[in-house]
Specification:
globular; disordered N terminus; 9 helices; binds S-adenosyl-L-homocysteine; alpha/beta
Length: 267
């Protein structure tokens, strides 16, 4: 029996049965390009610049929406208008390309070294790069929209997995909803005893070092044990923490924890 409701979980439909409007947008190949207009003619550089500006503005608006809404509301909104997901990820990919490294690459490396046989839940998986990159693991990938067959669309506060069924839960820059503590509670539910949650977040979401300490204290109060980190001295942009499940019940705290939204600069 699942403790949480499976309400709304949607598995990616086969490409054949996908509505055309979604197929057109899905995957990098079929995304509308900012270099051609709807008829495929080349845009002038001014038009290109303007389109890029609009796309950037839309990306930042969707980003803000994700940080200021509950997971439930985001799921409803993204299911209603799936183009939001594609617009968001186009912008997100551009941001990632300007970072010193993609934190997901380090997670892939960590799983290969430390957990090569683990069953993994990737919460807020985006385009499911983790599942695509790991050859010896079973990876369940969850996001608001099923961009490909690897992904199950759902709100990560209620994923369609049984209790204590995975060894590792990954949140890579995905604690976005106002109720992200519910995401952590859900992670606790699906984790086997002694399983690990790996969280990576942008450091600027925490006020300062004290904010980070507060967060790890909060995780401890929920019933997790914080694992010592590997040497991450070059990790200035991201905060990373591994938590181990050591108690059967997760102690949900009365006061919610708040993190600042991650804001992307205009580029
Ligand atoms: N982890 C991926 C994507 C990071 S972007 C990577 O590292 O590449 C954050 C992702 O979290 C987005 O795809 C967003 O849609 C997803 N997300 C945010 N809130 C969510 C929720 N309530 N339920 C499911 N996915 C969510």
């Amino acid at each position: 029996m699942f403790k949480s409701s499976k309400k709304g979980a949607v598995k990616a439909e086969s490409a054949k049965s996908k509505p055309k409007s979604i197929l057109k947008l899905s995957g990098k190949k079929n995304e509308p390009s900012s270099e051609t207009d709807s008829k495929g003619s080349r845009l002038s550089s001014l038009q290109e610049q303007f389109t890029k500006k609009l796309e950037g503005a839309r990306f930042r608006a969707i980003n803000e929406e994700l940080y200021t809404a509950s997971g439930d509301l985001s799921f409803t909104e993204f299911q209603k208008d799936q183009s939001k997901f594609y617009a968001y990820h186009k912008g997100y990919r551009e941001q990632v390309s300007s970072w010193p490294y993609n934190p997901l690459d380090r997670i892939i490396d960590w799983v290969n070294r430390r957990h090569p046989k683990a069953v993994i839940a990737d919460m807020g998986c985006g385009e499911a790069k983790l599942a695509e990159s790991l050859s010896t693991n079973k990876v369940h990938s969850f996001d608001l929209v099923a961009v490909n067959d690897r992904v199950t669309a759902c709100n990560i506060a209620a994923v369609p997995l049984p209790n204590e069924s995975v060894d590792v839960v990954v949140f890579c820059l995905s604690l976005m909803g106002t109720n992200f503590v519910d995401f952590l509670n859900e992670a606790h539910r699906i984790l086997k005893m002694n399983g690990t949650i790996k969280i990576v977040e942008v450091r600027s979401r925490f006020e300062d070092f004290k904010g980070i300490k507060k967060f790890t204290k909060y995780l401890k109060r929920m019933g997790f044990i914080i694992q010592p980190q590997e040497n991450l001295s070059d990790n200035k942009m991201f905060f990373e923490v591994d938590c181990r499940k050591v108690a059967k019940e997760c102690r949900l705290q009365e006061e919610p924890f708040e993190l600042k939204p991650c804001q992307y600069k205009k580029r």
